[in-house]
Design brief:
By secondary structure, the protein is α/β, with parallel strands linked by helices. It is 43% helix and 16% strand. It has seven helices and seven strands.
Length: 238
C-alpha cells in the first residue's frame, strides 16, 4: 500500500458503499485522502460505514439512492458536485436456472448491475469531461465465464465489461480512464445469501478488492491496466 494520500483534494463516489466490497473500497479511498461519498439504498448501513471512515480520520458523505433509478442518480451527482473517482460497485446476485428466472428477477438484476453502471458512469463522465477522472467498474469472473444458474447475473456482468470498453474509448479524449476489476468469490453477504452451501473460509476478502482499486488508481506511469482478474490464492492461476 502507498504511504502518501495521493487522493487528497479529490472527490470519490462508491456505489454500494454501505457494506461488503464497497465498504472496504470506500474506507480505502478515504484513507488515501478523498472526500468519499457512499451511495446505497440502506441509510443505516451507509451511516455506519461513514462513521467508521470519520472515526479513522477520513471524510465521508452519504447519499441514499437506488442506482437503477435515473432520478436518484441525477440527484446524487448534483449534490456531490465535481467527481474525480467513481467506483461502480453496487450489485445484486440472485442465482437460478434460466428456465426458472422470472422477468422481474431479470429486470431487477440488469437494473442494478448494468443500468446502474450506465447511469452513474454517464453522470460521472459529464462531470469529468475536460478535467479527467477515473472510473472503476466491479465486474466478476462471470464477466468472462459462464456458470450454470447465473444467467441474469452473468449477462449483466458481461454487459458491464462491454460498456466499460466503450467508456474507456470514449473517455480517452477527456482524460477519463475506465478500468474493470473482475473478482472470483469474495467473502461477503452477497455470496453468503446466494450460495449458503459454499465454504467461504478460503475466499478473498473485501480488502483484497480495495488493494486492487488502490493499485489501479496509483498507476502514474505510461502503462495502464485495463482489467484486473482476481482469484483466490489456492486456485490454479490459469
Ligand atoms: N462477493 C462476491 O463473491 C463477488 C464476486 C465478484 C464480483 N462481486 C461484485 O462486487 C460488488 C459488491 O458485491 P458484494 O459482494 O460486496 O455484495 P454486498 O455485500 O451484497 O453489497 C452490495 C452493495 O450493493 C448495494 N446495492 C444493491 N442494490 C442497490 C441499488 N439498487 N442501489 C444502490 N446500491 C445498491 C448495497 O447497498 P444497500 O444495501 O445500501 O442497498 C450493498 O452495499 C457487486 O457488483 C458484485 O456483483 C462480488
Amino acid at each position: 500500500m502507498r504511504e502518501d494520500k495521493f487522493l487528497s483534494g479529490k472527490r470519490a463516489i462508491v456505489t454500494g458503499g454501505g457494506r461488503g466490497i464497497g465498504k472496504a473500497v470506500g474506507m480505502r479511498l478515504a484513507m488515501l485522502g478523498a472526500e468519499t461519498w457512499l451511495v446505497g439504498t440502506k441509510p443505516d448501513r451507509l451511516a455506519e460505514a461513514a462513521a467508521g471512515i470519520e472515526a479513522a480520520g477520513g471524510r465521508a458523505r452519504t447519499a441514499v439512492a437506488d442506482v437503477s433509478r435515473e432520478e436518484d442518480v441525477l440527484r446524487v451527482f448534483e449534490r456531490a458536485g465535481d467527481v474525480d473517482v467513481l467506483v461502480n460497485n453496487a450489485g445484486i446476485g440472485r442465482f437460478a436456472p434460466i428456465v426458472s428466472t422470472t422477468v422481474e428477477e431479470w429486470d431487477l438484476i440488469m437494473g442494478v448491475n448494468l443500468r446502474g453502471v450506465f447511469l452513474c458512469s454517464r453522470e460521472a463522465m459529464k462531470s469529468m469531461a475536460g478535467r479527467g477522472g477515473r472510473i472503476i467498474n466491479i465486474g466478476s469472473v462471470v464477466s468472462i465465464k459462464g456458470y450454470a444458474d447465473q444467467g441474469a447475473y452473468t449477462a449483466s456482468k458481461h454487459g458491464l465489461l462491454g460498456l466499460s470498453k466503450v467508456m474507456a474509448v470514449e473517455g480517452r479524449k477527456d482524460g477519463i480512464v475506465t478500468q474493470v476489476i473482475s473478482p472470483g468469490g469474495v467473502d461477503t453477504d452477497l455470496i453468503g445469501d446466494a450460495r449458503p452451501d459454499l465454504d467461504r473460509s478460503g475466499m478473498m476478502r473485501p480488502g483484497d478488492i480495495a488493494d486492487a482499486v488502490e493499485y489501479l488508481l496509483g498507476q502514474t506511469g505510461n502503462a495502464i491496466t485495463d482489467m484486473v482478474r482476481l482469484r483466490r490464492k489456492s486456485s490454479a492461476p490459469w
